[in-house]
What does this fold into?
Amino acid sequence: MLEDVYKVTQDHMDKSIESMKREFGVLRTGKVSVSILDSIKINYYDTPTPLNQVGSVIANDATTITITPWEKSLLKDIEKAILEANIGVSPNSDGDVIKLFFPPMTSDQRKEIAKDAKAIAERAKVAIRNVRKDGNDKIKKLEKDKEITEDESKKAHDHIQKLTDEHVKRVDELLKIKEEEILKV
It folds into this structure.
């Protein structure tokens, strides 16, 4: 019974961290990453398809991404989708490939993005605390329904708190790494 509560709590806390990592992936750092394009979808045969599934997406260097569509007819659709995504650059097409040139970030931009990273981490911590609350509520219900003893309930609450502390610590570690990436010139 309690093992199920622990497992569900652990899984949900892990998912909160995975979600935070995905959000971190689209934040721009000193070196441009192709993950900045992950949210862009192309209308491919009336199906919204991720950009990386209609062509090759490569980061050439710290400031350039090259997109080579597998079908030339998609060039215009890809350009349009990139413009609509408002990622801070305009696509440059030569008829075969699209290049995205990202200007170097200013220190103000870096500080702003670092602030965004902190906000993402804070949302992850809130999500983890909400999962803790759900787990504790389940434990209280088990105790109230006389399915576990008061001692078991106390131990279970301690275990849930330990899980929470571990996950919050992990969020802080990931935030520190991301901030260093962002602020590194």
Q: What stands out?
A: The mean pLDDT is 90. The chain has four helices and six strands.
